[in-house]
Structure formats: C-alpha cells, structure tokens
Specification:
CATH architecture of one domain: 4-Layer Sandwich
Helix content: 25-40%
CATH topology of one domain: Glutamine Phosphoribosylpyrophosphate, subunit 1, domain 1
Number of helices: 19
Shape: globular
Largest sheet: 7 strands, antiparallel
Number of strands: 19
Radius of gyration: 22 Å
Structural class: alpha+beta
Strand order of the largest sheet: 1-18-17-13-12-9-8
Strand content: 15-25%
Distance between the termini: 22 Å
C-alpha cells in the first residue's frame, strides 16, 4: 500500500471494463466506446485514432501498429504485425551509390510505407463490433474542432522545434506563429480530419489508393524517395503467432520479429535466476544485473533480429535456455562491462501504447508509433499525414540480416505484451520509449511479479537504461543518492537523461474477484479509467 501523504497515483479498480492510455482524452473516449456497447478492439482503435490527433509527436496515421489480442474464451492470444515496408525500389546498393552511409531522419529514405491504417481496418473487421465511422468519430471531431494541449505533449513539442522547421508544411501546421502551441491552447488539424473522414467512409483504400496515397508519393518523390503508388496499394500487415517464455510461473507473450519483443523474453530468462537473491527492487546489485543483462541482450538483438526470413538465428535458438544461460554466464556480477554495444539507430523514441479489457473478457494490447518524435518531420500538406522515420531501423551494413532492401520491414521497436496464467489472460501491458521497450517490459514485470510491487508502483519505480553504443547509463533523477553511489562503485558511468524514460500502461484481470485493475504511467498525460 502506498503512502497517501506522498505524491503518486492509486491503481484504478472496476468491474465492467477498463482502458489505460497515455492521454486523458484518449482514455475518456475509449471508455465511452465501451459504455456505448463497443468491445475492447473498438475502444483501443478509437483511443489510438484520438492519440494520432492529440499526441502528434508520439504517433500518427503515417506510422506502424502492432496488436496482441486475447479473445474471450480463447486458449491463447493472436498477434498482428502492422509494420510497414521499404519501397520496392529501395536497396542498400542504390543508397550507397548515392553516397549515403546513413539514412537521415528528415529524408524520404527514412519513410517506410505506413502500416497503421491497414492494421486498424483489418483488426476492426476481424475483432471489432462497431463501424470505422463510429470508431473514428471522436478523432475526427477533435482534429476538426480542436483539442487542448496537455503538459507532456507541449514539453515534447517544444523539444522538437528544429525538426518541425525542416519542412515548410510541417512548420506551418505544427508551429503556429512559429512557436509550439502553449499548454491549454487549442490546436486543430483540419487536413487530418478530412483524411480520417475518408478512411471512415472508404476504409483502408481511402488511405492507400486515391488522393491521399498520390500526395504521399508525390511529396516523397520530390524529396528523392523511391516510393510508388503500387507500394501503397500493396500494403498489408499479417497475423503472426506470438512467441513466449515463462517467468515467475506466468506466460509472457510477445510479437515475433521484426519487432524486438524476443529481447524482452530473453532478458526475463537471463534475469530470473540473477534476481532470486535480491529483495529490494532498488538494490544496486539488482540494477547492475539489469544493466549488464540489457547490454548483452541488446547486442544479440543488433546482431540477429530482423525480418524472420532474413534471420540467421531462429526464434527457438534465441529463446533456448542454453543460449540465455550462456549469455547470463558472460555477465560480470561485480563490475560494468568495458565494451559498449553498437547501436543500429537512434536511442530515443516515442509511441503510444493502449490496454483495454471489456466486460466480456476480451483483452487488447495495442501500440502505434511514428518511431521518433514527429517521425521524419515530413507532413503532406493537403491531407495532414505526418510520415514515420522507421526506415532508420534498417542496418546499412552489407550482409547484415537487417540490411535495407526493397519490400523489407526494418527492425521495429514497438512491442505490445500480454501476460497469462494457466491458459487465461491476466494482463495486457506495454512500455513506450523506443529501444527501451524490451528492457522496460522485463523491468516492469520483474517489479510486479518478483518484487511484489503493485501495478502502479511497478511503473512508478525510477528507471535506467544503458545507452546503446556509448557505454553510459541513463538514470532518472529520482533514484536515491546511495543507489547512484552503489552503481558508480560497480563502474557504471551515469548520466541524467534529457527526458523521462518511456511510459507504460497495463490492466490486471483479477479473475477470482471478478475485477479489473488499471494503471497508467505518471511520465505521460494519461490515465486508466474503468466502469
């Protein structure tokens, strides 16, 4: 039980339905969908569309979407990979011929074909109850009539003014009066409202065919991109079989690569024996184990994880306990590693994650992202589509499993999670924050299941994460001084990050009590709501 004299949040408890998002408007609209007869998928998609409007730095219809769904009465979850592909005409050789050693964030080459809208329409048709018109209505209203800017949204917006000034249409829409909108001011996106109207009426074809697709191709072509109308017309996601491991007697389910969920599972396998003797979640020894295990697991990610048919190591090999046992044994229990991990792409990222459970017991874990804040910074002026920079997730190393190639999906950071026990779902969960997400899944589950913190406490606990490729550790300022000292004594070089580390949402399904327990990260503007 938390100390009610201290700042903090309580968990939210309800009996009929629960939503948890990173923005209060999204949570409110999703809860209304549930109360009006929609199911968990309807509510999750409605919340996601709202966040594409009110959190434009975090997500958008020009990005990607993954989902994990546990239909009521089913014995296992199903997963959907709605991540986009490189244009068919793209290739490492072609980029190298242009003299490009890296993909610039603001270039057309950073933009993959958006997968979100196709995923929404497919998931709605297969698992929803309402029409796309009903699902998108709140987002259309907010984009057209306007929405009030919340504090964390403003803070993120202000930090990315240089990016927003790179392309004239983006500057015009997102820097009114050449400044980020102030907290509490009203911002509108009328072009996006009209595009959402088109999707509501025409479904995915309203985005991937016709004027919207034509403008995306035109804008990207003018910037030197290889994108074609055929690339957009052929955009399709796919249902995939979740991968899983056991941890503290529970089953943890993740989407398979090209996402990085497999790294969360590997981390849990590495950490479970190491943490057995740790009784305090903020014990410097526990945090040392976490840092070093993350460094090793992410090194494996950067070596092996890519599109499944391009991976030299299969899922079974990477999740074999014999492999993660060897990884654990390579960890120095007393001091920090001296060799840093080499990164593939920028460390920071932004995303929205949504958890929903409805009165029938359907559970949805859904995540949507442009990758970094405001993605590539490229906005289509007539239709208001802010485009992703997910192509920066490719490797520019020839022969690497994740090397850029036409029609290929890059390594993707966004990962929805699901926890189950004895064949029943118990928690849709997710952690935002770019590359941090795999480590965040492992950290939050360890806080909850090993150290016995409640759902909100598991999110509230201070976070840390080794910076990929630099040998430093980002650590939030809320750690106690003696914890910092204990980590420095073990050789860790600590820096305070320029932003909070990630965000998170989750809903615990207490089957015995017949109740739902929700939590939402204090690092964002959102909340959990139930009825």
């Amino acid at each position: 039980m938390r100390n009610f004299e201290q700042p903090g949040r309580s968990t939210v408890h309800a009996t009929s339905g629960m939503v948890a998002t990173s923005h209060a408007l999204a949570s409110a609209e999703a809860l209304q969908v549930l109360r009006d007869g929609g199911n968990a998928m309807d509510a999750a998609l409605a919340a996601c569309a709202v966040q594409c409007v009110v959190e434009p730095g975090s997500t958008g219809i020009g990005g990607d979407c993954f989902a994990m769904i546990w239909p009521a009465g089913s014995e296992r979850p199903v997963a959907y990979n709605g991540s986009g592909r490189a244009p068919a005409a793209a290739s490492l050789e072609r980029l190298a011929h242009m003299g490009l050693a890296d993909v610039e964030r603001t270039s057309a080459h950073a933009v993959t074909i958006p997968g979100s809208v196709e995923a929404w329409c497919r998931l709605s048709a297969d698992h929803g109850r309402l029409s796309m018109r009903e699902i998108l209505a709140p987002a259309i209203r907010l984009a057209g009539d306007g929405y009030a800017i919340s504090p964390r949204v403003h803070w993120d917006w202000s930090r990315h003014q240089e990016l927003l000034r790179t392309h004239a249409p983006t500057r015009s829409r997102f820097l009114p009066d050449d400044q980020p909108p102030a907290v509490g001011s009203v911002h509108r996106q009328p072009e996006l409202a009209r595009t959402l109207e088109r999707i509501a009426e025409q479904g995915a074809s309203g985005f991937y065919d016709g004027p919207v697709a034509e403008e995306m191709v035109s804008v990207l072509s003018e910037l030197g991109g290889f994108h074609s109308l055929e690339d957009f017309a052929l955009a399709r996601g796919e249902y995939v079989d979740p991968i899983s491991t056991t941890y503290q007697g529970y089953e943890v389910h993740e989407c398979p690569p090209n996402g990085q969920g497999i790294i969360a599972l590997m981390l849990l396998q590495m950490l479970e024996p190491l943490e057995a003797g740790c009784g305090d979640p903020l014990d410097p020894q526990r945090l040392h184990y976490f840092i070093e295990a993350a460094r090793i697991a992410y090194a494996a990610r950067d070596e092996w994880v890519a599109e499944p048919d391009a991976m030299e190591a299969g899922f079974g090999q990477l999740l074999a306990h014999s492999y993660t046992d060897r990884m654990r044994q390579s960890l120095d229990p007393d001091s920090a590693a001296s060799v840093p991990v080499q990164p593939l792409s920028p460390v920071a990222g932004n995303t929205v994650y949504i958890a929903v459970v409805d009165r029938d017991g359907n559970a949805v874990s859904l995540i949507n992202s442009l990758f970094l804040n405001f993605g590539s910074g490229i906005l289509t002026p007539r239709h208001g589509v802010l485009l992703n920079n997910r192509g920066q997730g490719f490797s520019m190393q020839a022969g690497h499993p994740n090397q850029v190639d036409g029609g290929k999906r890059p390594l993707n950071t966004i990962i929805p999670g699901m926890l189950s026990h004895k064949g029943r779902p118990v928690m849709p969960f997710g952690v935002m924050g770019g590359h941090y997400q795999s480590a965040g899944h492992a950290y939050m589950l360890s806080n909850l299941l090993h150290f016995g913190l409640d759902l909100q406490e598991s999110m509230d606990l201070p976070r840390l994460f080794p910076i990929l490729g630099e040998g430093m550790v980002e650590i939030e300022s809320t750690f106690r001084p003696e914890v910092l000292e204990g980590l420095r004594d073990r050789g860790h070089r600590l820096i305070f990050p320029p932003r909070p580390i990630g965000g998170s949402q989750a809903i615990w399904m207490d089957h015995a009590a017949g109740t739902l327990v929700g939590a939402s990260d204090h690092r964002k503007d959102g909340c959990a709501l139930g009825y």
